[in-house]
Amino acid sequence: MAELVQTLGLLVAGAAITTLGFLSKRFFTKASKHEEAALYSALTDLQAKMTAANVSFGDLDAFAARIRSKVREADTKDSVGSKPNTYWTQGEMNRRAYAEFDVEDASLAKAVTELEGLIGEDLNLHAAQEAWVAYRDREAHFAAAEYEGGSIQPLIRSSELAALTRERRARVEAMINDRRSRYG
C-alpha cells in the first residue's frame, strides 16, 4: 500500500509539474493549439503509466480531493485572513476566474482521456473535441466582446470558459458512465 501511495504521489507530482509548466508557458506566451496537443499527449502518457502502476482514476481522484481540501483551506485563510471577498481587486477576480477555468480544463482533459481509454483511439472523438474547443473559445470571446477594453473582460471570458468547460465535462462523464453501465 505504501508503494502504491508513493507511486501515485510521484505520478501526480510529475503530472502536476508538467501541467503547471505547460499552463504557465501557454499563459505567458499565448501559445498555439499544437501545445494543447502536447498536453493531451502528456495526459495519455500519464494514463499509460497509471495503468502500468495499477493506479486507478479513483485513486487519483481521492488523492486530488485531499489536495483540493488543502487548497480550499489555504484559500479560506487567505480571504479571511487578509480581506473579505467584497474587497478583491479586479485583477484578483480575473486571476481566480482564470484559475477556475484551468482546473475545469484539466478535469475535462482527464475525462476525455478516460473516455478514450474506454473506446480506444477514436478519430471522431478527437475531431469532436477539437471542434468543441474552437466553439468554446469563440463563445467565450463573444460573451466578453461587450466589455472590450474594460478590466472586467478577462473575468467574463474566463468565467464563460469555465462554465462551458464544466458543461462539456459533465457530458463526457455521462458518456463514460453510460459506456460503463452498458459494457461493464
Note the main sheet.
none
- How many domains would you count in the coordinates? 1
Distance between the termini: 26 Å
Q: How much β-strand is present in the residues?
A: under 5%
Radius of gyration: 18 Å
- The percent of residues in helical segments reads over 70%
Structural class: mainly alpha
Low-confidence stretches: none
- The gross shape turns out to be globular
Pattern of helices and strands: HHHHHH
Question: How would you sum up this structure, described in words?
Answer:
The chain is mainly alpha-helical. It has one domain (2-183). It is built from 6 helices and no strands. The protein has helices at 2-29, 33-52, 57-81, 90-119, 123-145, 153-183. The longest helix has 31 residues, at 153-183. The radius of gyration is 18 Å and the shape is globular. It starts with a helix and ends with a helix.
